[in-house]
Amino acid sequence: MKQSKISSFFVPKDGKRKRPDDEAASSASSRKMKKIAEGKTGKATREKIVGIHDKENGLKKPPPPSTVGGRTPEKVVLSPKKLQENIILESPDKFIGRNLQEDFDKLFDEPMLAEVEEYEWHSKKSQLSLSKPTCCRVVRFMLAHSPSEQIVLVRAEGTKDEAVCRLRDMWMMISLTVNEAVTVLAKSFDGQWVINAQNGYLIIRPDVMMPITSLVNGMFCLRRGVLSHLYKSVTGDKPVMLMGRVLHELLQESLKKNLDDAESVEKEAKDIVNSRTYLREFYLSGVKLEDVYKEVKLFIPKIVNFVKMYVKGDVPDVRNGFRGRIVEVTDIEQAVSSRRLGIQGRVDATVKIHKNGRKESVPMELKMGMASFSMEHKIQVMMYTLLLDELLSNVRSGLLLYLREELIQEIEPKFEDVRNFMMLRNEFVKHVSSADYHTLPEPIRSKSCLNCPHARLCFSYLKNDGLENLSANHPMKDMNFPDLQETHINYFNEWTRMLFLECSSQDVVIEDAFVNGEENITQVGDDFEHVFQVMQKEKSVQPGCMVTIFRQSLGVSHGKVISVTDSTITVLNNKKLEPKEVCKIVSTSRHFLHNYLSNLAFFLDEKYQRLRELIVDRTLPRSDSTVEKKILTEQTMRILHPLNKEQQRAVLQTVASSEYLLIKGPPGTGKTETIVALIKFLNLQKQRILITGHTNASIDHILLKLDGVEYVRFGSLAGVNRNVHPRTFVRLLEKCENIEDVQKLYECGVMASTCISLDLEALRKVSFDICVIDESSQVMQVEAIRPLLFCKKFVLIGDANQLPPVVKKPDARKMGMDVSIFERLEREETTICLSRQYRMNRVLNDLANSLTYNGLLQCGSDSVANATLNATIRSKIWVEEILSPEMDMSVVFVDTSEYFDDQTLAEPTQTNVIEASIVALLLGELLRHGVSEDDIGVIAPFVSQVNSLKRKLQGSVEVSTVDQFQGKDKKVIFFSCTRHSRDTYVDSRHVLNDHRRLTVAVTRAKVKLVLVGDMKSMTAYSPMQKLISCLKDNQIIRLKNGENDFTWDDLLKESSSQFLISR
Prior knowledge:
single chain; alpha/beta; CATH 2.40.50.140; 5 domains; seven-stranded mixed sheet; seven-stranded parallel sheet; 39 strands; 20% strand; globular
């Protein structure tokens, strides 16, 4: 691995750093960064010390020995993280050098020092060189007294090589944890690796790549920086930001094309301003084209001068501090991430310059405001320089251009500034990457708090914890938001905790991915669809996941997973990659975290007080109005006519509702037909409708039935049904020629999007009369908030007895994260229930009632009630019995207990060859007797069994998990229970203990349901036990060797050797 230039300026040859004249007067932000580095940040940031001190009883013994980094130490290792809770350093302003030693003298008595000195691991000879930036894991660490330092044992990633590193000065109090990822660069002094104020660095959690802009936002107020990073899309001056984007692009294109005359630049400006992308942005921001042109024209002569001066070779103005020439623009808006430095950024322009007789690549940062050469702006350039140096090598500096004043300066990374920024990054990461819940830095004491765009968020955190600790004269002490009730703040904080719990999992890394040829790269609009070949498949990487594409340790592109197979992952990303180039795909759940946190932030806004009362306080909606007779026209009656009485009532009551209504739709009760009729009815009344739901499939299913209704579908083309593509926003925008066309597009009466992909920015000027949320029993409350922000009233369609929201973390489920928006608001006063179902025959209807619905369901017609399997099977007795078309045999349980009674069962697996063989044999008999593949479905609770069944069946019969079968039905359903164990203990969180998933599984069949499983194992799961108790004796078919033409040996002869269980 090449040595990054970062190592050269972190370890100066002479150990000193000369401060340039232009930095003599530090800005407030620079001083703030230095204070963070030196520990001079006030009570909040002066970390507290614990574990060795008790306020009442004095010093206490360290905790008992524990296994640290795979070893059992003789003595406990004192963690500085534990040393930071109860005692504030007496003299935090004397943080470096001799005075730091004096402070630590007061923290230890002689017995404690004697214990610390007993450790010997810190004196071991290092096998690992830390002279270059090295990715490591923390093995153990301790605080030492003389000299005052923190001693850390690190092990290089992927090896057993270890090194002892001594952290001194401001690095000494960095908080570490065992097995934490770190990047280390140190200097050797007398055989010891040392990081101090003059040499080296230690970056914690470099896998958490922090955006440089977020870190810069935290230079003045770290708390504000953390909030702006977590709660994206909450702030920003949209027109100003938009104008900056236009001017950025104009300069970038002028540089790429060497435009050096006003006429050419003006033509380019018109092309950019009139592009469809900007037409949409101008409409949403309320910016007039004439105002845009007026602003752009001010910059045209400045751009021309810049190109003539720095591209064409004219002598530049020496006052600018750059005496070179730009000879090539190599990239624009280049996204670069480093899993070694732990930062990421988007470089405005990467250019090649000619200076002092040589060419070199540098980043160029463009600013449109007044020239300040502030530390915030300079540090951005320094960080981009480091990132490009990792990517390109030998990048020594960057350019900072203020176009408005035509000032440019070359910025070189300065040791002290970059060191302080990296310490700021370490502090920042502690607050945003907690495994369970993040903490915020304490608020600064500034009058600017009163005008901060994050004031409501900041207050909501403080109200829950810390407001009473602020000094009496703190600006936030008397801050008040009367519309924010205590229940609202508690709801906000509870959901924040749950989201951090759920999204705290490690990133998923897929190594050695590559695109096998140009034919696997397709341009889609401005993006590129890449089909990656992968050697390993991660089941947690699913369509919709956000990923970063890495070359070595550098991220070069961001994208979204479109589809996944056993050997490929298709990603839609913003940059074309080279075929055959070996990449690393990293998936993170943080995208969803930011998305949901933004929803919560908007939810706190004053204008959503009533919505908070409805959802948080569960206030009953205001009284409904009555349906006016004048709207019951011939057209509307024609829409209602095909519906049954319950469905008609649901439509009319939704129309009459004032704030919200729930429509409970058990399986087969015609939810989709009711929704379609409702949308057509409201569309005739000129109501504006937003259709949302949990999945693309459910939304597209509705849209394809809206014949005669114009709609606009938001979302990625790759995730949308191809038949809906002509009505997608992307395709319709291509036809727009001016802002008026875009306006007409946004004034369409029906719009549709999934809840998660609904663009807050795209709809900020749109208001809907009603929002329809399908599958709302699968939608998390915080997910549903987003579409509800845009509507006057809403209707939720779902069934809380079916699949809940997907929540992976047990602790988050315990807190209530899997309680859907439907389940939270479901009450008799607010809910209409559909009970007439048109799917299951009367036997299957009775089973659903006995298992879950308590007699609610009834068959919608005699033809539905009396339907049976239309095939008479002629085969072995046991096969004929199972596949009998008799009404009473519409549901059967095939018991395989005898086979497993004779086995020595190992740990239960998630595959079962016996059940797969039985399903395959029975399914084959159905096909041979004329039953269509399209009429058969196979369900299993585990992905592994699904894959085994797919390999066994090798046909077009649909095989999937319960979750994937939600919303579908088949005439015949096979359910493979899979699990086999004689252990009476079962986890209450096990998938087979999920009553709702079992309800979905057994209500997919129309005329025949065949369950295959080890009944003795199944009775350990209460939902399965209840289902079995609902069956008659003749509906339970116990397979026994030698009875009814059945033998286990005959069955297993049909089995493939690839399965995991054998006799």
